[in-house]
Design goal:
Layout: H1 5-149, H2 161-167
Length: 169
Amino acid sequence: MQNWVGPLIAAALLLQVSVLIALFWTTRRTMQKLDKTVTDLNEKAGPILTRVQILLDDTQPKISTMVSDAAHIVYLARGQAQKMDRVVTDAADRFRGQLLHIDRIVTGTMEAVEDAGSQFKTTFWRPMQRVSALVQGIKFGLDLLRTRKAGAPAAGREESPEQEEELFI
């Protein structure tokens, strides 16, 4: 039984060595292909990367200037917006004050017109009512005199309520 173990071990060892050699050659070919691909990639990408670097080197100061200018523009715009806010707020406050002033003037004018109307009523219409009452009294008196001259008895005559009321107005 021990005769066949030695050759079996030798065969297994030989099989392992051959698998390792095959694995080595496959890995070596893969590494050569990978090296060739990397070399080709470097040859093609190298000039592109160089151009991109040159472009970035050329545009970096311009981009920095543009960013700086944009920041300055934003700063100026903010300042102008704040000034505009102050001006609009001041104008609105002044406008509100002017409206209040105009309101006071119009209110005062309306009160003056109302007072003038009241004064006109008391100084013109009341005397006119008194004059009207006086005229009606004179008219009644003249009518009474005419009726006495005409011969009608004055005692039998009754005064209408309208005539009495007009005398007291």
